[in-house]
What we know:
The chain is mainly beta.
Amino acid sequence: xxxxxxxxxxxVAGLMYVPDSMEARGSPLPIAPFPGITNGTGDEVKAxxxxxxxxxxxxxxxxxxxxxxxxxxxYPPATPGFPRNSHRFSYTGDGLxxxxxxxxxxxxxxIDFVTAVIYIPTWxxxxxxxxxxxxxxxxxxxxxxx
Length: 146
């Protein structure tokens, strides 16, 4: 059962709600576009895209499989010698589908993104059926304009 009052507040990854077992766990760290760059006329412009690193103390096998299936990681590899480790998601624009991602912004409120590249989690060790010190990276995120 979700801990959020409405589905509009639930995190989304790859056009899907994040499973209940993970949605309120971990530590999300939003990465805003780099500020302070100026153009030729001295106006500030953004550099780069939004991103987020969502860290989890542990993920179990079912949770890791959810992320792996989301990014279609697996064998046989899409590229010879390498399994796919990320997937680019895009909002379809039909008004019914979920955004590519919905995650926390710098003020702690949810932001919808029209595109997002999501990577399979990296982890530091595997022990007793758990992946420890995991990071799920979201990159190349473009804010959805209402």
